[in-house]
Amino acid sequence: MPLMIRPILIHPDPRLKKPCEPVSALTPEIEALGRDMLETMYDAPGIGLAAPQVGVMKRVIVMDCIKDGPPEPMVLINPSVTWSSEDQNTYEEGCLSIPEQYADVKRPAAVKVTWLGLDGEIHDRDFAGLWATCVQHEIDHLDGKLFIDYLGPLKRQMITRKMEKLKRERARGI
Ligand code: K2U
Ligand code: ZN
User: Fold this and answer.
1) φ, ψ (nearest 5 deg) of residue 126
2) 39, 86, 121, 138: which one is catalytic?
3) SS3 of 63, please?
4) Which of the following CATH numbers is that of domain 14-171: 3.40.1390.10, 3.90.650.10, 3.30.460.10, 3.90.45.10?
5) Which of 36, 77, 88, 173 has the fewest CB atoms within 10 Å, i.e. the most exposed one?
6) Helices (DSSP H) in the chain: which residue ranges?
7) How many Å lie between the centroid of ligand 1 and the Cα of residue 159?
8) CA 42/CA 56 separation, integer angstroms
């Protein structure tokens, strides 16, 4: 199946607010979804992407924990946080579904995540720094939560209004 760059949904969209279904079995379709999501993420460009952002309501996220070494594309199926640190980190987050909008979000500085890999194995890993922020941002997407949900109502409303305007302009081909 050829790789596909899938369109990324823009907020507000009901599919970005719905909780996603766990993946019940590793199928060729799930594998193709993971590869397409990585392709779509690199094209954006981004360092993370969640399946609902491409309209697939399944608990699948992709990340590329680019450190100093070579790229490390990851596909995490049914990811869950099993531990999070007391200390928090504030990071100016963005979102591929809320383009050009950034705001400070506070999250646990380190998390332990467990997930099913495309290799059929259960994986466990500690994430810190930007990767902790990214993996929590992506897992939030699977629960229908966006980074703007951590902001005050006025800032969230302002960003939502901007996105509604952007979508109207895109619809008119501007
Ligand atoms: O889920 C997404 O929308 C992709 C997000 C992931 C992310 C958000 C906040 C902080 C870290 C990751 C981003 O748009 S990916 C773009 C990006 C690139 C480098 C650093 C931070 C964000
Ligand atoms: Zn996002």
Assistant:
1) -85, 140
2) 138
3) strand
4) 3.90.45.10
5) 173
6) 28-43, 129-142, 153-171
7) 17
8) 18
Cβ neighbors of 49 (< 8 A, separation 6 or more) are: 8, 37, 38, 40, 41, 61, 62, 63, 96, 138
Q: Which long-range contacts (CB under 8 A, 24 or more apart) does 43-46 make?
A: 43/5, 44/8, 44/96, 46/96
pLDDT band per the 50, 70, 90 thresholds, residue 69 = confident
Q: Render pLDDT for 20-43 as a digit per residue (tens, 0 to 9).
A: 999 999 999 999 999 999 999 999
Measure 122 CA to ligand 2 centroid, in angstroms.
Answer: 24
Tokens of 39: 């392709």
Residues 6+ positions from 57 with CB-CB distance below 8 Å: 15, 18, 20, 21, 51
Gap between the Cα atoms of 66 and 48, Å rounded? 11
**Ligand nearest the Cα atom of residue 132:** 1
